[in-house]
Amino acid sequence: MANAHREIQELLADYAASLRDGSVPTxxxxxxxxxxxxxxxxxxxxxxxxxxxxxxSASFGAKVVTPDVGLFISRVDAGIASRMKKAHASTRDPxxxxxxxx
Amino acid sequence: xxxxxxxxxxxxxxxxxxxxxxxxEPFVRATFAMFIGHLHRYLGNEVECEDVLEDVxxxxxxxxxxLRNIEDDRHLLRTVYLYYMRKRLREVYRRLNRxxxxxxxxxxxxxxxxxxxxxxxxxxxxxxxxxxxxxxLKARERKAIELWMEGMSNRAIANQLETTVGAVKMLEFRTIxxxxxxLKEHCRESGAQG
Lengths: 102, 194
Description:
The structure holds 2 protein chains of 2 kinds.
Chain A: H1 8-21, H2 24-30, H3 33-41, H4 43-60, H5 69-92
Chain B: H1 3-12, H2 17-43, H3 46-62, H4 73-96, H5 104-111, H6 123-135, H7 139-149, H8 154-161, H9 165-193
Helix pairs in contact in B: 1-2, 2-3, 2-4, 3-4, 4-5, 7-9, 8-9
């Protein structure tokens, strides 16, 4: 991604590689104003991204594994517990939110 | 749809928050692989996928209304993507956009797009569809795409095809557009048959 002014085919190849390698933020940061404009105006680029996502999913999506789904579930549950706590706290004692100005 | 998933969905759309919380475990177990595989299409990074998915499940717990009357797995995935995943994907990339030259609209189209022609096709169907399309390509085009899908860099592909990196990128671009036309044709034909 070192070129200053990449053509649309280079931009697509770099986007595809970054999606495959899990480094999309790096690709986004690498875009110059000119390249961003080029992407915005290219119908071909947008059409091609759908196929890139398909290729990425077909070849690498199935390999995504989490060794311990139980651990992931406990993270989800902790998130839910935190939201319940917040909802409870905001409805429990509305007078607490009043500030005594005197 | 799997019976366990159907039961979990029923409990998930119950009115009280504790029942919904209990239903989350079987729901996550039944849907994790499907959801994370789908998210991977947009993020391509397992850690990011897990972080986003964690918020998606909590959002579903908080407001499961969109999941009433789900008919099958594809309907479920479509609903979860449109009402829960997309919102979270956009948040991830809204943060990134502060340092990017892409416009907000282009960023959203790139990272959390509308559902495309084959976005709800299952992993197996997708592989089959791609294999059929790849069979119709010229040998060199097919080789470039297959090597890319094996995880090779463009430089390594260029070495294999005995050409330059620039030529490989152009070949991939043209071939991808060709595949896109094939996909459109496939969708038109299956639409006509349906």
